[in-house]
Write a structure and sequence with these properties.
With 95 residues, the chain is mostly helical. It is 61% helix and 0% strand. The chain has five helices and no strands. The longest helix has 18 residues. The chain is elongated and about 70 Å long.
Length: 95
């Protein structure tokens, strides 16, 4: 019936999302607690489904397959190395 047609149309629209709108970004950041990096690197069709289903950001971070091609979660070891390098640079110049 009409309800089934409306759901199919909505499903097609969600799958065709090619860009994350400012409104979607706002919901992702402020209501669903995704980080700016998550939103920047999230696949648009995933963002659409996340917003539609109101999926709050998992504690362990965004699933690896939600990232755009070539991106992924930050490796915590790499983050520690970067922070240590910044700290060493500050110490070296006396900041």
């Amino acid at each position: 019936g009409a309800d089934q047609e409306a759901r199919e149309k909505e499903d097609t629209e969600l799958q065709e999302t090619v860009e994350i709108s400012d409104e979607m970004k706002d919901v992702l950041r402020n209501e669903l607690h995704y980080t700016a990096r998550d939103v920047r690197l999230m696949r648009p069709e995933i963002a659409s489904m996340v917003v539609y289903n109101r999926l709050i950001r998992p504690i362990e971070g965004m699933p690896r397959n939600w990232y755009i091609e070539g991106a992924g979660p930050v490796d915590p070891r790499r983050k520690k190395i970067e922070l240590a390098a910044k700290w060493a640079a500050c110490v070296a110049v006396g900041i």
